[in-house]
Amino acid sequence: MRRTAARLLTGTAFAVVTAAGFAAPAQAAVSASGGSLDVYPSTAVPGGQVTVNTATCGDPGAAAGDASAVGAGPFPLAPSTHDGEAIGQFQVPPSAQPGTYEIVAQCASDGRRVAGDLVVVLSSTREQVYPRGSVKTGVGGALGPDPVQTAAGVTALAVAAAGGTWLLHRRARGDGI
User: Fold this and answer.
1) Which residues fall within 8 angstroms of residue 142, CB to CB, at 6 or more apart?
2) Could you give the CA distance from residue 165 to residue 167 in angstroms, rounded to a whole number?
């Protein structure tokens, strides 16, 4: 019993530590001034929109961003609805090459500089995947689109409808069934 409990606790602790390592968001590089620039998404395709934000600049939270490394040029960071944060956006140029690029921002109030990394890839790993093939759920549709079987089914339904109508008509006339 003890051995099983110890294995369970060890396995759980390992799973928690592993999940914490993978679940941590892609955090931006921390600059010498102790702040960071969060880049979302941290991986983008050419032509994609990227949002950056930082809480390093404090109040009023304005900053000047620079994405020249990737070819996007300067962009403004304005105070956001979150207290003391600055947020800005830029578009990755369609001509951007794959690689890791440093995105920087300089606070307007005190000139502090923060940086974060953007990874450019040629294709997104989040592409929509469409199902292919048929669902194997039993008789309904499993026989395939055979025209002879389809015609036989339609004929059987038509005969059943005609027979039901005839019986209801006889019953209504009072012929008795």
Assistant:
1) 136
2) 5
Torsion angle in degrees (nearest 10) through CA of 46, 95, 77, 23: 30
Per-residue pLDDT of the chain (177 residues; tens, 9 = 90+): 455 544 444 444 444 334 433 333 333 334 444 578 889 888 889 999 999 988 887 777 788 899 989 888 899 988 888 777 888 999 999 988 899 999 999 888 788 899 999 999 987 656 566 777 766 665 555 556 677 878 888 899 999 999 889 888 887 777 666
Q: How many residues does the chain have?
A: 177
Nearest Cα to 52, choosing from 79, 17, 77?
77
Cα distance between the two ends of the chain: 74
One-character DSSP codes across 5-32: HHHHHHHHHHHHHHHHHHHS--PPPB-T
Supply the DSSP string of 120-146, one letter for each residue. Answer: E-SS-TT------S----SSTTTT---
